[in-house]
Design goal:
Length: about 325
């Protein structure tokens, strides 16, 4: 059995490196690697939301493509205990995440090859690389999946709600586990030439996209809460708020909140955008022109891995208020 250094990460099955010229490989040495690959390829963990994402994993890509080794068997190229099959899975994970393949792992073993200790150990290290970066795909493609518009002038408070509905709970968790983002953005155009309008245009441009990730929220401006998908509950929680106006518009703000339909069986993610045009201390000038609020989605790209992420259905509610 392997006797080298342990390779560990939170939530991952501990793997042990081999010592060249000393160790014999047991089935458990191979299967520990396979277990960690299977955890990433398998179904999402059923974690109650509101508790954070620390133990979350599972991309639901059909399970690992390599079968477990059994005691007394030989490590082969393919099939049960197949190292080349294990390499295929590791290569797919690294492609998806943009993780560099370590020495030997990229070169598929053939029936005439001897697997070196370096290649064996680097396979384990690559698995840990992927585990630690499991929420970070190499790239994402952003899209606007729906929009709500308003052309009536307003002077007080507007609200708008967008919902994202997944086919089932597993799809919802899988989307965020693969590093998918959901969010909103807003813009204002046209209307009268006024400082009030300019202030709101600048605010929207400054914030840009407000993205909900698995464990946090991002925006180009404003105060963000650090709450991600796994922190949500069935009550709205603030993701971002941004004032950012010049005097006398310092009390005007944009606020984005989010919630889910269930913390144990989440299938719907709700976003609420609130726009407050507070008193200007001089004259409460109206905001006019065309106001647009967008439903935004950043889907993880496959990058040659063969992976695919679920696509939720968006519903963009109207903008209400005055």
């Amino acid at each position: 059995m392997a006797s080298g250094s342990n390779i560990t990460a939170s939530g991952m099955q501990t793997m042990t490196q081999v010592v060249a010229g000393t160790d014999l490989i047991d089935d458990v040495d191979f299967n520990n690697m396979r277990t960690n690959v299977a955890r990433l390829f398998g179904g999402p963990q059923d974690i109650t939301l509101g508790s954070g994402s620390g133990s979350a994993y599972g991309w639901d890509q059909g399970g690992a493509g390599v079968s477990a080794a059994s005691a007394g068997s030989t490590i082969t190229r393919v099939g049960a205990g197949g190292f080349k099959d294990l390499q295929d899975d590791i290569q797919a994970m690294c492609n998806f995440l943009g993780v560099a393949l370590r020495s030997g792992v990229a070169n598929d073993v053939s029936t005439s090859d001897t697997i070196t200790a370096t290649t064996w150990n680097n396979a384990m290290l690559n698995i840990r690389d992927c585990w630690n970066d499991r929420f970070g795909p190499q790239s994402r493609t952003s899209s606007t999946d729906g929009s709500a518009t308003r052309t009536s002038a307003w002077t007080n408070t507007l609200t708008q709600e967008t919902t994202w509905t997944f086919a089932n709970e597993a799809d919802c968790r899988q989307f965020f586990n693969m590093g998918g983002y959901l969010g909103v953005s807003a813009s204002r155009s046209g209307g009268s030439s006024s400082t009030q309008n300019t202030q709101w245009t600048n605010k929207f441009n400054s914030v840009s996209d407000v993205w909900l990730t698995h464990d946090s929220v991002s925006a180009n401006a404003g105060s963000t809460s650090g709450k991600g998908f796994y922190d949500l509950t069935t009550s709205y929680q603030q993701l971002c708020i941004y004032y950012g106006g010049a005097t006398p518009y310092t009390s005007d703000y944009i606020k984005v909140e989010a919630r889910v339909n269930s913390t144990t069986n989440p299938t719907v993610v709700y976003f609420k955008t609130t726009l407050v045009d507070a008193g200007d201390n001089v004259i409460d000038a109206s905001v006019d022109g065309t106001l647009t609020i967008n439903a935004r989605r950043a889907a993880p790209d496959a990058n040659g891995s063969g992976f695919s992420a679920p696509v939720p259905t968006d519903s963009v509610g109207g903008i209400s208020g005055s």
